Every structure is written in C-alpha cells, then in structure tokens.
Amino acid sequence: MSPAPPEQEREVLTWDLYGRAARELAQTVADSGFVPDVVLGIARGGLIPAGSLAYALGCKNLFTISVEFYTGVDSRLDVPVMLPPFLNAHDLDEASVLVVDDVADTGRTLELVADFCSGHVREMRTAVLYEKPQSVITCDHVWKRTSRWINFPWSTEPPVANRSGVLDA
C-alpha cells in the first residue's frame, strides 16, 4: 500500500463544504432536466452523496449497490466486484436511474454498475462529487474535477470500532 500524499497535495472536503457540494451537484442534475425514478448509490463512498441527492431531487426511491475495488490508500483489487446482498436488476426495469458515487477515480466501479444496469433501465445518468482525468467513464454530472487525492469527511478518520465491534482504545 502506498503512503497517502502530503496534505497540500490533497482535496479536503469538509462537512460544511460537502453540504454545498451536494446541493450544487443536485442542482446540475435538476437543471439538465433529468428526473430520476431511482437514485442508485454505490456503497460505501456513494451512499452519503446518494442520500443527499435523493432528498434534494425529491426522489424517494433510493437503492444501493455494493462494489469493492479499493482496499486501502491507492491500493485496489484487479477489477471491481459486486458484494452481496445483490440488487435485482429487474427492479430497475424501465426506470430513469441516477447512479451516484463519491469519486470517479479509475471509473471502473461506475463502469461495472453501468454494465449491470444496461438492458434494464430506460435511461441512466451518473453523478459524482469528484472526477479524475484518468476515469474511463465521463460522468454526466460532476461537482469538481481534480487529479489530487481526496479526503472525504466520512472516511478520513479511522473507524471507532474494529470488525469485532470492540471500541479501539
């Protein structure tokens, strides 16, 4: 695993800035005329933005899909993989779907989800807080483009409990 870059080489998204970013991102979706029937958040990083966008867009159908790709700072699996419980693709049949993630870094997670939705949805759009230049997917809605490492407020601090549920000292 590579060490994290120094602070000055990072995008730092605070909770306050996140609130503005989510609202501005939702506004770009609304301004485009796209009205999602379903907001599909990619777990884990896309869950918080997906909930925020669903509220801002007045969409009550919020689904999740779990994909694992990153295993640490700049460390990832060879390919992204879906994790259970699995979403039934038929639940998306003929829906307008907004797929939301926190960042399109390589874009391969979004690509996997787009392939999963293909042949089921009526229309699909993507929305991310950040998009990086190397992404294989060009997202439909982006709050900010950057090539820097991103500190998200929900994942910068270490977990307060280990996997067994015991609080760390």
From TrEMBL:
Stretches assigned to the Phosphoribosyltransferase domain: 13-157
Superkingdom to which the source organism belongs: Bacteria
The entry's keywords: Glycosyltransferase, Transferase
SUPFAM superfamilies, sorted: PRTase-like
UniProt GO molecular function: glycosyltransferase activity
CDD domains per UniProt: PRTases_typeI (cd06223)
Residue stretches spanning the membrane: none
InterPro entries: PRTase-like, PRTase_dom
Pfam families: Pribosyltran
Gene3D superfamilies: 3.40.50.2020
Cited PANTHER family: HYPOXANTHINE PHOSPHORIBOSYLTRANSFERASE, HYPOXANTHINE-GUANINE PHOSPHORIBOSYLTRANSFERASE
Protein name, UniProt field: Phosphoribosyltransferase domain-containing protein
Organism of provenance: Microlunatus antarcticus
